[in-house]
Structure formats: C-alpha cells, structure tokens
TrEMBL record:
UniProt key word Acyltransferase: yes
Protein name stated in the entry: Glutathione hydrolase proenzyme
Protein's pathway: Sulfur metabolism; glutathione metabolism
UniProt lineage: Bacteria, Bacillati, Bacillota, Bacilli, Bacillales
Assembly, per entry: This enzyme consists of two polypeptide chains, which are synthesized in precursor form from a single polypeptide.
Gene: ggt
Annotated positions binding L-glutamate: 439
Homology family: Belongs to the gamma-glutamyltransferase family.
The EC number(s) this enzyme carries: 2.3.2.2, 3.4.19.13
Amino acid sequence: MLQNDALSYPYASQRMTTYAQNGMVATSQPLAAQAGLDILKKGGNAIDAAIATAACLTVVEPTSNGIGGDAFALVWTKGKLHGLNSSGPSPTSISIDKVKERGLEEIPKFGWVPVTVPGAPAAWVELSEKFGKLPLTEVLQPAIDYAQNGYPLSPILSFYWEQAFKGYSNNLKGDEFKHWFETFAPDGRAPKAGELWKSEGHANTLRLIAETKGEAFYQGELADKIDEFSKKYDGFLTKEDLAAFKPEWVDPISVSYRGYDVWEIPPNGQGLVALMALNIAKGFEFSERDTVETFHKQIEAMKLAFGDGLKYITEADKMSVQTEELLSVEYAEARRQLITDEALTPTAGEPPRGGTVYLATADNEGNMVSFIQSNYMGFGSGLVVPGTGIALQNRGHNFSLDENHDNRLEPGKRTFHTIIPGFLTKGDQPVGPFGVMGGFMQPQGHMQVVMNAIDFKLNPQAALDAPRWQWMEGKTVQLEHTVPNHIAQSLARMGHKVEVAHNPGGFGRGQIIWRDPKTGVLAGGTESRTDGAIAAW
C-alpha cells in the first residue's frame, strides 16, 4: 500500500488514517459521508455511494455546491478507469457582442450572464444508469430526507455560510436575488452552527430528479421553471439549452510519475495543469519535503504549468494546442530548464506541435470513485429558481471576452473548468481516488498531495495534513502559517513575494482512499481544514 507507518505529520491535526475492508466514503461533511455508507450497507456499490453522497452534499454543504452546478467523475470498475465530464455549456443565445451590448467588459460573477447549463443532476443519472446497482429513488433518499426534515449546521459550514451571506447582502441588490435570501437566510441571517436548516423545495426537486431519472430537470417541469425565471430577468439560459445537454464519457489523461500513473479528466478541466506540473517536477530529485529547495521547485513548476493552462485550456476541440503536446517529455524538459534559483514570472510557452465539494468512495467489489461537483464561488450566481432550491452556478465567469483567447465566450461552449477529480494507479492496479477542492488551488493541491504520498511517503491523512502553499499570481505565493518560518524567509530571498495565511480555508479541502492490492484493505484520509469525515465499515 502506498504509505509509510501510521505516524501523523508533525504539523497535522490529531486525525489518523482510517482503515476498513468492506467500504469507505470520504468527504467534507459527516452527514454526507454517512449517507454514502448507508447506501453501501444496503447493497449499493461505490458508484451508488458516490451519487448518494454527492446529492446529500447539495443539501448539507450548499456553500460549495448545488443541484445547479457541474460534476466530473473518475470511476474504476472491472479493471478499467472511466472518465465522465458533466460540465454544462454556455447558452446557445449568448455571445461576446451580446454581453458587451449590456455594457460589460468582462463576465460578471453574479446574475444571469455567467449562468451555464447545470450538469450535476445529469451526472448522477448517467453514473446510476451505467454502473449503479440500486434505483436512483433509493440512492437519493438520504439527501431528500435531509432537505425535507432539516439538519444542524456543522461549525466550518456555518462560517462559510455567514461569509456568503455578508457578501451577497452587499452585492446582490436586484429583485432576481431575493429567492437566494428566502432559501438560505429565511430568518434574515445565515443559520448558525447547531441550528437546523431545511429546504422543502430542494427536497421536491431531488425527488423529481430521482423519479424521472433527470427528465424533469432537463425537459420537464423543473426545466420550465428555470426557463420562466430566466426569461423574467432577461437571462440567456433556455429550456432548449437544458434539453440538449448530455454528459460526455471521456478517456482520462495521465502522466507517469516515479512508477505511478496520475490520472485526470482531459480539458475543459484544469487537471492538465496538475499533470504538466508533475511532468516538470519529475526531472528533479526531492529528498526531503520541508526544504526551501523542495518548495521553490514545486512552486516554479506549478507557475509554468498554470502559464500554459490559463492560456490554452478550454473545450478540447477549441484548444489551439493538443493535450499530448503539452504533456510531452520534450516540452516538460524545455519548461524545466526555465527554473533557476530565482522566482520567475510565469508565461505560456509554445509546445511543439504534433467556495466545490470532493468525495471518494470504495467498496469491497473493487469499485472506486473520484467525484467532484461545484456551483463555483460558493453558492454560485446568487440566483435560486423560485420554490425549487436550485442554486444556479456562475461557471461562465471564467470565459474571456477577448476574441483571440482560446477560452473566449462562444454559444454552446464549455469554459475552462476548475473542478477536477484525481486517481492514482500502479501498473494495471488501482491505488485509489484523491482530490483537493478549492478553485485554482485544485491542481496545486493535487500536485502536493501526490508528491507527499509518492516522494515523501506520507500516509493518506498525513499527506492531506501537511502544510500547503498556493501560487496566487506573478511571483506571489501564499504559505500556510504552519510552514516553517525559515522556509518562508528563504523563499522571500529567492524573489518570491511571500504571504503567510492564517485561515486554512483558502488551501483547499481534500480526501484520499488507497487500496492495498494484496489484502483489499482501504486506507483513507480526510481534510483537517474543514468538517471532513470518513465513514467506513
């Protein structure tokens, strides 16, 4: 099994790696993890458990995801890894000219302009139909129950809910936003830790999705309600956009890293950034984790990868370069040569031409799932479809209004996407799912977790607990306050603009499940920076 002894990392929380044999669910909310485990115990498989957990997370962690968001999944089953891209495109009626006609010079964060087609409900249905064992009505029942009857907020959830309420109170002034406040601040404020919150509209929506296998959302009464709401406030999204949407099964992409294969979903997701960074880093030797040389080379590799990612990543067939070119050994070597002892300002190269939730599940049949879904920027656009609990995402904010940019806004196009599930294999055997959610922190978290596990031989919990860094822009890098001070000072002397952050929330929230190929024993780690939990048996 990919880990060392059971000792925690020196700067870690007091959690230890969790071991089990029959099944495991790791995610950021205890209630959602338990819901997934309950489905396993009822005879469901890891895919059923992932769907149940994901649906439950829309209820018990609405600060990060919702029914109106997108989803991606990597599924290991019967000896093969499958990729699902269920990110929705922009409306077919939108265009750069139409946005600029509204007096906008960039895609806003809130309102109808950044709303894209929600893909999450379709992901649940697609996974259930292709790989699930239990009916969707049974799998979604835990989420329906929590939405119908309510649940008490956990501490970190309540913190982010309060932050969102304050931000939305300051920024969301139009009549179209009143439904968000009615749904998520029914008493005129954010609910506090330990207080009950429920949404009967959310429960009814989940019930309709389950009973109709998603048809109500994309072609039926829920689609009609979304369409009516959009038309009322001059939105671009229509019921025709919803009806046309279908998730896409894709071939995962990978790089070989020190004897392991690291897998991601191909563009339009930013998983390519994590793979490019690892491709650059594998040309170096890392003997210790907590040295300035390790931090510097990791950061520089990530900056170079992001330089390319932010320029080139968009919907795959709209990219001006191919994924294979960006992941070539030759290109990684050329980028690696740019790394010196001084911090660089990242730019894109020219390759040779040729506030998200994450969960991991595993069962005793060998199935494993890496799943992620998000509304983007916390609750998303600030729009909630009246009476439904559907908080619509604002994923379109990532589009560029520059006609010459690869990720320029176009009708019916999928934008650069931040949410990415990860998976690790060795030879033809699965090691397991991993992920770190949190906007542009995600590929940075993937790189650090993979290196913690492989280069520095940390067990799953220690790999997650270890102090993190995050490249922000230019030469600016944030370090968690638990990073040793001498490293921060040395990085500053190398030209990095170092910021020390005391709030761990900006450094992502991750989960890991590894499987021992000999015994089948599962080893799981969950995030100490949130209300993370592992449910296992």
